[in-house]
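quick q for whoever's on today - can somebody do inverse folding on this one?? i tried earlier but teh output was garbage lol. tokens:
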């Protein structure tokens, strides 16, 4: 499908430089021309899993010299980093790749990049796919401020603690999640953040069965359970930020005023229209404030 690579690297590689190269997260068409050229030209490639990277390189007809691929993963990178940086200091060129997406983003590479920086070696980016950013950009949730927190914890108690921290967090939050835990995670999310918080599930991005949907957490959990296929593959969860404290205080103030005159549902609807806050939580708040009872008493 792709011709073997003969593209020149613009300007050509710099002696002593480390190139951090993003690779596809599913669709091989997403390996950029520049990434191909860099991978074809460096003296060495440090790869999370050399078999995966060999297959990727083979697909693009990129040949590496013997010993050109070195395994660099969580268990050995601290040990290898200094040796690789010494090669850079001697004028070598090195690319860093992970199995998929952008290295260092929930992937190995931090020790190497840090060591290269500390040694004063140039570090260049060859940017490309990243599941977190890809999911955020299609979620329909606010992108002006966001936080990325890697994989959700495996255990429910720790996961709930992670979600609890988002109760008052105004930024959009992005997490990676595995196929085994997605349903349990949605249960925990619902328990901590309630049914109204909007959440995007992005699954199998760039692949054949790519699917993404953004719904309030309560509806999303039902949707997720509606079809076993929706639990398959790789996932990103993007969670809407909490309403600004000032906004929710204003919504509550308006709601309280309206509740003095109106039944809970009408007061919540009007308060939502006036302030732009979501109606459901306002209705729940109206009920806890004794809304209907108060309205009935005054009628
Ligand atoms: N470095 C990668 C990046 O830039 O996205 C992430 C690597 S992390 C070990 C793997 C996790 O990323 C998966 O478990 C999943 O949560 C997410 N992920 C990777 N590829 C994905 C895809 N095609 N669709 C959805 N999520 C994906």
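ok took a stab at it. sequence:
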């Amino acid at each position: 499908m792709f011709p073997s690579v003969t593209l020149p690297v613009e300007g050509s590689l710099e002696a002593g430089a480390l190139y951090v190269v993003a690779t596809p997260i599913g669709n091989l068409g997403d390996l950029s021309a520049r990434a191909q050229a860099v991978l074809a030209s460096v003296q060495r490639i440090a790869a999370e899993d050399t078999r995966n990277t060999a297959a990727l390189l083979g697909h693009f007809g990129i040949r590496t010299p013997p010993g050109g691929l070195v395994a660099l993963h969580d268990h050995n990178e601290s040990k290898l980093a200094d040796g690789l940086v010494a090669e850079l200091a001697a004028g070598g060129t090195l690319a860093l790749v992970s199995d998929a997406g952008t290295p260092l983003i929930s992937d190995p590479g931090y020790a190497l990049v840090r060591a290269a920086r500390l040694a004063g070696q140039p570090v260049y980016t060859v940017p490309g796919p990243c599941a977190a950013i890809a999911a955020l950009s299609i979620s329909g949730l606010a992108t002006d401020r966001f936080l990325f927190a890697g994989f959700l914890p495996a255990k429910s108690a720790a996961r709930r603690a992670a979600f609890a921290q988002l109760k008052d967090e105004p930024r959009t939050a992005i997490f990676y999640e595995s196929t085994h835990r997605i349903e349990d995670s949605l249960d925990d999310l619902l328990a901590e953040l309630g049914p109204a918080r909007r959440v995007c599930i992005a699954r199998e991005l760039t692949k054949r069965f790519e699917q993404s949907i953004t719904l309030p957490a309560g509806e999303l959990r039902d949707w997720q359970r509606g079809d076993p296929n929706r639990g398959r593959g790789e996932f990103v969860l993007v969670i809407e930020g909490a309403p600004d404290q000032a906004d929710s205080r204003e919504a509550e103030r308006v709601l309280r005023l309206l509740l003095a005159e109106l039944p809970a549902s009408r007061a919540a609807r009007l308060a939502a229209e006036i302030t732009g806050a979501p109606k459901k939580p306002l209705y729940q708040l109206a009920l806890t404030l004794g809304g209907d009872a108060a309205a009935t008493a005054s009628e």
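fwiw The chain has three domains: 18-129, 132-239, 245-291. also The longest helix spans residues 245-259. so keep that in mind when u check it
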